[in-house]
Amino acid sequence: MAGVATAIHLLKRGCAVTLVDRRGPGEETSFGNAGIIQREGIHPYLFPRDLRSVVEVALKLRTDADYQISSLPAVAPFLWRYFLASNRETARRTLAANIPIFAHCLEAHQALMEEAGSSDLVAKRGWIRLFRNGDPIPEAEAEARELRDLGLDAGMVSMEELASLEPDLDTTRLEGALHYRDPWTCRDPGALVKSYAALFEKLGGTFIRAEITGITRRAGKWVVTTNGPELSTELVAVTLGPWSKRLLDEAGLKLPMGVKRGYHQHFAPSGNARLTRPVLDTEYGFVLAPMERGIRLTSGAEFARQDAPKTPNQLRRILPKARELFPLGDSVDEEPWLGARPVFPDMLPVIGEAPGMPGLWLHFGHAHHGFTLGPATGQLTAQLMTGETPYCDPAPYSALRFMRGQGGR
What we know:
This is FAD-binding oxidoreductase. The chain is an alpha+beta fold. It has a domain at 1-46 and 87-126 and 188-257 and 346-409: FAD/NAD(P)-binding domain (3-Layer(bba) Sandwich), CATH 3.50.50.60. It is built from 11 helices and 22 strands. Strands 5, 6, 7, 14, 15, 16, 17, 19 and 20 form a 9-stranded mixed β-sheet that branches. Strands 2-8-4 form a 3-stranded antiparallel β-sheet.
């Protein structure tokens, strides 16, 4: 999503653009999400700081977070930075930096989907957060008030209202529900990205399917080597999501990015059961989302090396809990899907020119919100690359923040 959107916005500013991807558009990270264009998602996902939560994660007692023991030596440095950055001051800065880009996310998607002819993939019903017990409800009510103060539409709904919105949910197992009404939802995220990619080519962009193997500076230009053609250009935008770090490490720019892996699997609904919008089970950390292939069950975060083998333990553990809330039938997938979210410790993306590397531009690290923010931050990236006045202050997203010792280092 981030790469295709950036490419389109560069085309619209008069650039000749070649988009390089090892697979087809929309077949990696942007394929495997809950399909929410999350207008309300301004609050960062913080690493738990209370002792009980840390112990529960460490003992693998929770289903919303898991880790692979064999990967701990590799992921521990990032986890430590993430833990340190999950403080009130960093969260405040991240929230403030999120407000302008999230405020632009629906408008940016709307413009692309209308031009791409894919508006039919998106519904405008919001999504619902479910509470099995009352403990988190006061915090959720406070969040809803804060969102309303920012002009967003969010509020608690009664079980009667929930039953009217989603008749096939078992509301007897719930104590409360919070309806975020502003977000839009997509029934096929991969198809939406592909529609934007088709628009990119229609507008005159060039797509090359190849694996990028390196990037070097040569004779005043950037040379991108692939397992296919070698490309030489004045400007490069790195929008490789979780693969960005490996490329940039080898180019000499080391940034403290980690990955949160995640799984999903589709199930047929039993009988005539229907779900019309995504719902999140707060206690167990999974989402049920209506998709073209069926009901998509998404897991929480798994901390492991990006290339580590699949261990879909979270899906196995949450499936019985999901069936308590909604009548899921058999799986329609041969095996669970696995992807990786690129994430920085302060939960903000990196957007801007690479420090000390003129002409090399960065646009990745959106964590849980690449599908939401790709068009909005793609526009911002294109504005910066072409010298246009950006629609918001880009300073909070610069990679320089990790070189000044600010939050997230």
